[in-house]
Amino acid sequence: MATHFVRYTPDVEVDEPHFDENLQTVIEKTERYITESVTAGGTGQALRDAHAKGYGLVRAEVEILDGLPAEYAQGIYATPGTHEALIRFSNGSPHAGADARLGSATGLALKMFGIAGPTLLEDEPDTGTFDYANINAPIFFCNTVEHYLFIQELFLDAPSYFSQGRPGAHRFFADFVTGKGTLAQEDWAWDEFLAFLRLSKIPPVNVLLSSYWTMGAVRHGDHIAKVRIAPDPHSAAAVVRRAIDPASAPEVFRPALQAELQERPYAFDIQVQLCTDLRRMPVEDTTVEWPEELSPSVTVARLRLPQQDISSPENLEKMDALSFTPWRVTAEHAPLGNIMRARKEVYRRSSLARHHLNQQPRTEPHSADEVLGPAPRRDEASARAAGPPGPMTSPA
């Protein structure tokens, strides 16, 4: 029996009450944190309010596969071909410093070049770039901008809570669930808190071994989807530095990534999971993991990382000057839901503030070479990750 994929219509999203008012408060807090981070962040630079610490800027290419089923050959994935790309690997925390203090939530931000069609960013519609900003978990711990108001504050103040040991941790947990005492008991943020606990228990591993999700839902042309960037099994099997011990040194994630890429190429699969049931695969509730048994993730593209050297300080400087946002996409891939909608202006204003304070030009590059310089010559074998293309579907 043919699978029924839910068709996208605007009414799959539900407008949150007081969205604009709450969003403005989030933006003001974000800009204030970024301004204060110049002196308080420990680096002398303005930091991102999330994913502040980057682990490396990596040259890559995306091959959009030919012969995809019609439901998956949507938007940019309707045209097979290869695109230059850049990847920023990062920690999810709004703070910098030793890896042991930041947790094991990590991100993969992907920028593809040479994508036709206007983006959804009104102030830069014709960049020809297309971004993903994914995290290493299929769920997120916030569903509304109203809740994000206090959750953002908690995460920005997290070091002061946890520096006080168990009593501070207990206060953090209580403030999370109760909205710092602002929520009625029947509205306590239990779902978000349980999602946060799940994310906090992710074991630290080499960033090449994690899968990365879009967090919220996105359009996939005529349909609704979540997008996952998953390690190619052949590449993952070749990784030598697998388990990561953040207590072993101040820096553990970047050296492991750097060493692997110096020794061999790597590959991920870009996969699309289409929605088949809005009740069990909701758009507005990001704490719910979409079941693979309802709709498996299907590989639509290959993300290849050539063997390369990312060890220079200039690599980190160039990485810091870039911007990534889930809204730098074409209309066929628009983010969906209130939290994803809030990210549009929060990310834009965060980027504007950070670049202004750091006196960095805020311009979108047109190619990976423009950022990193010409790629070193290499033979065809090292240009592509080992192993044949992965299967069309794979388990979570």
Secondary structure topology:
Blueprint: H1 19-40, E1 54-64, E2 81-91, E3 106-113, E4 129-135, H2 145-156, H3 158-162, H4 165-178, H5 190-200, E5 212-213, E6 218-220, E7 223-231, H6 233-238, H7 253-263, E8 266-274, E9 297-305, H8 313-320, H9 338-357, H10 368-372, H11 380-383, E10 393-394
Antiparallel strand pairs: 1-2, 1-9, 2-3, 3-4, 5-7, 6-7, 7-8, 8-9, 9-10
Helix pairs in contact: 1-2, 1-9
Helical percentage: 25-40%
Structural Rg: 20 Å
State the secondary-structure class. Answer: alpha+beta
Task: Let me know the number of strands.
Answer: 10
Largest sheet: 10 strands, antiparallel
> What kind of oligomer do you see?
single chain
What is the 3D shape?
A: globular
What fraction strand? 15-25%
Distance between the termini: 23 Å
Spans of at least 5 consecutive residues with low confidence: 380-396
Number of helices, counting only DSSP H or I runs of 4 residues or more: 11
Tell me, rounded to a whole number, the average pLDDT: 93
Please trace the helix and strand order, writing H or E for each element. HEEEEHHHHEEEHHEEHHHHE
